[in-house]
Amino acid sequence: MNKRKIINDPVYGFITISSDLLFDLVEHPYFQRLRRIKQLGLADFVYPGALHTRFHHALGAMHLMSQALRTLQEKGHLIWEPEVEAAQAAILLHDLGHGPFSHVLEKVLMPGVAHESVTLAMMKQLNRQMNGRLDIAIQMFEGVYPRKFFHQMISSQLDMDRMDYLNRDSFYTGVVEGSIGADRLIKMFEISQDQLVIEEKGLLSIENFLHARRLMYWQVYLHKTLLSAQAMLTQILRRARELTAKGENLFATPDFFRFLEKKFTLADFEFNPDLLESFNSLDDNDVWASVKGWTKHPDVILSALCKGLLDRHLFKISFFDTVPGEEILAPLRKKLLSEGILESELSYFLVTGETTNWAYEKEQDPIKVKMKDGTLLDIADASDIPTIEALTKIVRKYYVCWGKNVSLRG
């Protein structure tokens, strides 16, 4: 059987699956599930074109990894073909642990279990099934492989994950400011002192990359309408879990109900292959089918929230520079109470939260530039654009979401 395949991708053109191992990974049910999980969750409520999947994204990241490693080889760095394959496998699998509507589901149904940890558990399970063919890929993913720059290419501020999602999300949302020119950026890659660095002539490309990331966060990932929709879905899952805890047998697929019914720890995922199979059965369809079914549930809170989300009658939302106090919240409570919402129900229809935008994490994960004289400088020090230093500061905003024209009791 021919396992060398070419896939036509709208962002990069042709993507090559270049080895038997990569083909077997793409064909595996763990990876095929990513076809059924949208990359941007509920963002199509804002940008109707944002319907691309984590399957698209993972293939794109693998393609960029291949390009980056070939660039480094052409510059004289000795990178063995088994390392090329392992790095491609690691980035191909880096999103396996994302559930549907990832961060919402993690927050409510899997508190304390990060998707990266679930990814690692799934990679180890795959490795057992494949008789150790992922040993090097897992070492690279965990950051324990001796050549540290591989881990940087998988998880850092210059990784192939970010490069692809900025390019891809920009393409599908139509937010052109997010386009980063990945091809040129990758051509500027270099290795120095076992670190992934950028050549000095790539300074402008890095500056563009950081600005694009900041803009994409405000315009897409932290868009107020998306935050409102996510707040509603969070309250839906919260209410569903509470009703399940009281003995309600809610309509849900068996595997989704398993996660509604019980909270699992990371140890459960690591030592229970059956749980990994249940997790791998979850995708966007499970959640939407339940939301549709729950619109007819006799619980007025659950049904009202589900109808609102399904019909895009979203919560109103306002941003604030400081934590909103009673002068903001009290009038909203009063308005909701006047509409017939009970005191005990207010927390479902009046939600507060905060967002942060940190375009460049200088202290935690610096981007190094290799100057013409061979010295390594932080991008913020190498750049003559003062805004790069400004991007190192965390911008924090607070928000309040509340139900608009809520009618629970006719």
Describe the structure.
The protein has helices at about 20-25, 30, 55-75, 80-90, 100-110, 115-130, 135-140, 150-155, 160-175, 180-185, 205-220, 225-245, 255-260, 265-270, 275-280, 285-295, 300-310, 325-340, 345-350, 380, 385-390, and strands at about 5-10, 15, 190, 195-200, 315-320, 350-355, 370, 375-380, 395-400. With about 400 residues, it is an alpha+beta fold. The strands form 3 sheets. A 4-stranded mixed beta sheet has the order 3-4-7-8. The chain has a 3-stranded antiparallel beta sheet with strand order 5-9-6. Helix 3 (about 55-75) packs antiparallel against helix 4, helix 5 packs parallel to helix 12 (about 225-245) and helix 12 (about 225-245) packs antiparallel against helix 17. The mean pLDDT is about 95.
In short:
The chain is of the alpha+beta class. It has helices at residues 20-27, 29-32, 54-74, 81-92, 102-109, 115-129, 135-142, 149-154, 160-173, 182-187, 203-221, 224-245, 254-261, 266-271, 273-280, 284-294, 300-310, 326-338, 346-349, 379-382, 386-390, and strands at 5-9, 13-17, 189-192, 195-199, 316-320, 350-357, 368-370, 376-378, 395-402.
